[in-house]
Amino acid sequence: MSFPIGRVILGPVELVLRKVFDWSRHYSLWPAHFVTGCCSPEFMQTAGPRYDMERFGVLPLASVRQSDVLMVVGLVTKKMAKRIKLLYDQMPEPKYVMAIGACPISKGPFRESYSIVSLDEVVPVDVYVPGCPPRPEAILHGVMLLQRLVLEGR
Amino acid sequence: MVVSEAKEIMRISWGPQHPMSGQFRFILETDGENVYEIIPDFGFTHRGIEKILEYRTFVQGIVPFERLAMVDAANVGLAYVRAIEDAAGIEVPKRAQYIRTILCEISRINSHLYAIGLAAEAAGGYPAIFLWTTADRELFLDLAEMLTGARWSYAFFIPGGVRADIPEGFKERALKVLSYFEKRLIAYRDSWLENEIWLTRSRGVGRLSAEDAIKLGAAGPSLRGSGVELDMRKEEKYEAYEELNFKVAVQKEGDCQARFMVRFLEMIESTKIIRQALENLPPGPFKKPVPPKLPKGEGFARVETARGEMDVHVILDGSDKPYRVKVCAPSFRNLYVISKLPKLTKILVADVPVVIWSFDPWYLDADR
Amino acid sequence: MLIDERCIVMAELPIPIPIPLPEWVVEFIALNWETLLKIIIIPGLAFILLFELVAVWFERKFLADAMLRIGPLYCGRVAGWLQLIADALKLTVKELFAPKGAHKVLFYAVPVFAPTIPALAVVLIPFGPDWILFRAGGAGLLLFFALTSLIPVLTILAGWASNNKYTIIGALRSAYLYIAAEMPLFIAAAGVVILAGTFDLVEIVELQSKMWFAIPQFIGFITFFIAMLGASERVPFDIPVAEQELVLGWRTEYTGIAFGLLMTVEYACLLAWSLLFITLYLGGYQGPPILGPGTASGIFWMLVKLGIVVAIAIFLRVVFPRYRIDQALRLGWRYLIPLALLNIFLTLAMKPYMLALLK
Amino acid sequence: MSEEEVIKAISENFGELVVESKVLRPKKVSITVKPEGLVSIATFLRDSLGFDHPLGAGAIDYPAENKIQMVYYIWSMNRRMLIMLRADTPRDNPRLPTLSSVWDQMNLHEREAWEMFGIVFEGHPRLEHLLLPEDWEEGVYPLRKDYKLPER
User: Fold this and answer.
1) What is the C-alpha to C-alpha distance for residues B145 and C332, in angstroms, rounded to an integer?
2) Which of A38, A41, C82, C249 would bridge C240 by S-S if both were Cys, CB 3.0 to 4.6 A apart?
3) Interchain contact D/C (3 or more Cβ pairs less than 8 Å)
């Protein structure tokens, strides 16, 4: 079996590059404008002056094509679940999902409703932010958790 | 897909994932610029709250009910609580009525700031005003948090009164916030309501005449923007609104600018109401004990939420859970008026966000 | 490309090159190191990319400040200065894909060619008396306009190739807006050409040594600035990329580095037009010689004026909402073009007095 | 008082069609009507009595009395009065004439009542799902009393 010269020479280079790109990815997580529930005013507050999301490089953009994080803010109904699946597939590859609010995690105050699903049944979720509505500090904590996740190179 | 070959009308989906559509989907039939048809697609945030309420006792039911319009949780919660009190014939002590009025007006200012901020964003990426209103909302959220402990969903009103009394120090802080806010309102008026480009974008756009507004069933500021004076606080005289003097904001033109001017004037009125309510706050108990099982009966409450008049019809059957709760949501009617608007006036694709946000629909309120 | 007549012997090379290069490379560099410097550094590639990073960073910080926010902060410890580098690196790593029905070749051709056009336009701008990359034989202004009028062609191609209803509307709007903005630009620039009597940008700047053209050509100055905002799609005319109505206009379907390149197009357009605006009306590289007589102070003054003009363009984004497409077109056709024509008549009528003023 | 005038006016013109009418609260009148007279009374209310501002409509399910009651809430702008127009239909085969011709907003309310209670509205232009997802199985009406919620 020939000696993996490529691995030996390029190994450290690839490691450095991975570190640099992970650093750059964790500082520019662009969510898409997508609020699906009653926590949306709290999401606006997090983007507001007091709890400014943009300090962490989180810049909400208009379309899903350019976004890295699918921040599902609020409840997910069966009808909305189809659209979320569609959106998740349209996102470019290194993508993450953040469930903000008690409803996407466990259907929240409407747990026995006939038309609500939890987000895990629709898309794989990376970070859960509980709270109904979660305080802006909780959402920012979720963003920091996601940044640590990205740094580990998930 | 092309609807009709003759005018090359194509059907654009103003989908749930769109910066200005919130949790809703409009289907626009347009030929690129003129909009011929706006078809609302309900049901994206339908939680079946009326069914859930039948499985929750009265006090438990307040939490999901407030999720109808979280931005304006106090007024919405008040509608449900007043309906139960109306059905069971419960009298609320005077002090509780004043405290309820204060929190309702704080929540109204909150909701109107949200509407004005998003309208500035809809008019054309005007981020400064959107963020200024978000900054001012933080002040009112702190006030609500000091009074009730929660920023948005207060669950502060219960049948028979209020959960807790006003903490001391609340009055001074509220007066400080209100005086600062009145200066900010002047800043909004100069920099935005009289902004030349905003006027070209909103003056005469989405005009709704008074008869159409009544016939189609518009609600709240959308109705008062067309010159129809109907405000539940004056009609029903509930809570402390009877003793407080305030004017009903009405505008004649009925276009987007008029609707926002109504919301703007209502914010000024709300600050006056809070000041008066804080001045002559009566002493006495703030809560009356209410038995869990309420007698059989039927109650109907009409509350002026920030988006319009919400009517709740509650039927009790003697158990501790309501038999049936029927909610007539203002945003449901406003969305219907939006869908009928292209037939009344000419709307361009670029106008659609401004027109939609001038009615300030709250889609969770419409989907229940 | 005019190679400099002065042939520099290798010995007098200003920068000693330690790297063991082959013979002919050293010879090539020795011969025209100055042109290489122009291509790579000042009006060339590095300048445009650096301007792009600094302008976007400044815009995000300035907007955040106007909105009582802080803006990017933690990515670079000081004031988030590394934020744009992080965004650019992240974009290069993103997955690239085209929508199902898209025309693959065209879809990927546009992001590759689009940034080159405004970059080419920047080449014609003089940064010093002899610090100009391509003098275009005395017709710099004409070539500039020829190049910048190619941009709407590419926008329509991109909009059509992305096979999405929104992008088609966005691309068509961008074309309408460009035509409505280009006409006043030509006519206003014509006023300057009549006054200066030549199309060569260097001579136009030389004429402004005593007094800038902004004062005699004041109406043209105002029209050019407003039309420039329209041409480079800055607020209040950023209708083709109206986030609220058309998601991202003709750029909606692009992901990863393609989207990054198309963002450079927007800022390179702004750079090109503001540089032309400076050379025509604000006296180009003219200014009190601070860093010595030659090109150094010229470059310094160009950068200072560029900073001011771009800051004003960014400030407008905070203050103004956006015009509707028909209002923008009406503004263009009904107000800007008559104003520009009035400016030409004035210059024709008062040319001798203006020239006396300039001497 | 204007409430009595309204009740008197209605009982004169449609004596036998009116099952029951009472004044719930000051300025709130409730009238229960037979389904056949619904459209004629509604047009009478809108044209002559001035009830022109529709607020909403909903249904209530009474499995005990085997009936579903549809309630229309209409506000009169110049009388400053609210009327609750009610109509009962049997629970097993609920059928009602549509009122979308009288107040066009009822179009949406009736679609919601159809999908939640199963009331079929004759003459309704487009009886489709409004709030429930398109693939909701036929014949299941969530707001009826016999539809138990999954978890409970």
Assistant:
1) 50
2) C249
3) no
Exposure letters A49-87 (e unless 16+ CB within 10 A, then b): bbbbbbbbbbbbbbbbbbbbbbbbbbbbbbbbbebbeeb
A85 in D contact zone (CB under 8 Å): no
Q: Domain range spanning residue C140?
A: 101-358
Question: Would C93 be classed as within a structural domain?
Answer: no
Q: Which domain holds residue B214?
A: 2-367
Q: Which fold is adopted by the domain D2-122?
A: Beta Polymerase; domain 2 (3.30.460)
CB contact under 8 A, A112 and D151: yes
ipTM value for the complex: 0.85
| Tokens found for residue B155 | 């669950």
Q: Give the model confidence (pLDDT) of A28-43 as tens digits.
A: 888 887 778 888 888 8
Q: Supply the Cα-derived Rg of chain D in whole angstroms.
A: 16
CA distance B212 to B338: 12
How many A-B residue pairs are in contact by the CB < 8 A criterion? 98
Angle between helices B352-359 and B256-279 (to 10 degrees): 30
Q: Which residue of A has its CA nearest to C90?
A: A25
Domains of chain A are 5-151 (3.40.50.12280)
Nearest CA in chain D to B363: D131
Query: Residue written as tokens 């007549």?
Result: C5
Residue C38 lies in a domain: no
Report yes or no: B368 and B68 within 8 Å, Cβ to Cβ.
Answer: yes
Nearest to B217 among D53, D82, D152 (CB): D53
pLDDT of C334-358, one tens digit each? 888 999 999 999 989 988 888 887 7
B313/D73 touch (CB, cutoff 8 Å), yes or no = yes
Cα gap B45→B65, rounded to integer Å: 14
In a domain, C85, yes or no: no
- Among all chains, which residue has been given the structure tokens 């992305």? C162
**Chains that contact C by 3+ CB pairs under 8 Å?**
A, B
